[in-house]
Amino acid sequence: MKKAQxxxxxxxxxxxxxxxxxxYQTTSIDDIIATTEVTKGAFYYHFKSKDDMGLAIIEExxxxxxxxxxxTALQSKENPIDGIYSLLxxxxxxxxxxxxxxxxPVANFASEMTPWNSKFSHVLExxxxxxxxxxxxxxxxxxxxxxxxxxxxxxxxxxxxxxGYWGIRNFGKIENDKKxxxxxxxxxxxxxxxxx
Amino acid sequence: MKKAQxxxxxxxxxxxxxxxxxxYQTTSIDDIIATTEVTKGAFYYHFKSKDDMGLAIIEExxxxxxxxxxxTALQSKENPIDGIYSLLxxxxxxxxxxxxxxxxPVANFASEMTPWNSKFSHVLExxxxxxxxxxxxxxxxxxxxxxxxxxxxxxxxxxxxxxGYWGIRNFGKIENDKKxxxxxxxxxxxxxxxxx
DNA sequence: ACAAAAACATACTAATTAGTATGTTTTTTG
DNA sequence: CAAAAAACATACTAATTAGTATGTTTTTGT
Lengths: 196, 196
What we know:
Two copies of one chain form a homodimer. The first copy, chain A, is mostly helical. Helices cover 75% and strands 0% of the residues of chain A. The first copy, chain A, has helices at residues 3-22, 29-36, 40-46, 50-75, 80-94, 105-113, 118-144, 154-175, 181-193. The first copy, chain A, binds a DNA duplex through helix 1 and helix 3.
């Protein structure tokens, strides 16, 4: 019950990298077992289907990694305006787990799977709602602490910011250059300051 | 030289609908010829490959349709703040060519094709740059006409707005309900008013 | 140590894929 | 009207796909 978990995790991680760079549909199981150097038997011992593995990637790789870094980044600054900006700046400019040319893995999954696969839709909805909730709470706390105006709607602001993030990720993919992020970040900073 | 063009256009339109709802990879040529009721011979007479057809969809269907409606919507109001808001409101809430559950066709293409297909990346980059340019010009005109502050950076603002649009489209896909657009639109209105 | 279960390996299958080879029909043009 | 080119039709192919059937090896509990 130790080595087996390691191979399972190895499959998930390697498969994630392949899917993140090539997309879910274009990543075949043969691709995955070739790069992980496990056999098909091992793969289907751990996952009952390709979709089962895809969902496990979201639940076991993306969800914990992103949610924790999301929360700590937001809480790193006293003023949520600084917290939100530094979260987005760092995730776009300094994170080298994410690549400009590949966009946001969650947005990619959503874009590719969502209309025709309800299981994926569901876990992705849960995940994004969790993020929005975290950001809403941050904004509300900022209102209580006097950093943000009382008439700011936390849900609207959070949705607005998350949308911009997903969108600029797609721009980055197209332009294939982190420089594409800069105009967005500049305007984000100005926008965030209007909330105080 | 008349009926042939009609079949070509028919293929492009039906293929677009399939791709818009299911994605490019998951739409097979057999799918396309089944719904268009043309044969494989006809298909490959008009397009030399699947990618050739995909690019034709962008160039001949999406580009003209979107760019023209984009420009006229932006110019419909004297104040660009109203113009931009009504453009986004209408494209999100009133356009029934686009479906919530399928998102933005251009963003879908970008998300799915961009990292591994440079030809698609290129035409999509051209297309989005064109939109950004149009919006920049609108904002600049608004500055000249006194509707928008002089210290507003038109490029930053345009990129910021376009990002938000693409992102909220992805949210809509996940939530599968136009209501997901409303918090975004409310905050967009507030943001746009800070530009005046 | 040994049986049983867990973990992995190999060789297949049936379906689907983009694309082609080779036709026939329809239009156009001289 | 006839030949040539354009437009479409049919039947294939070779590769790839997710998934399975049937093994062997390794680990675990007793």
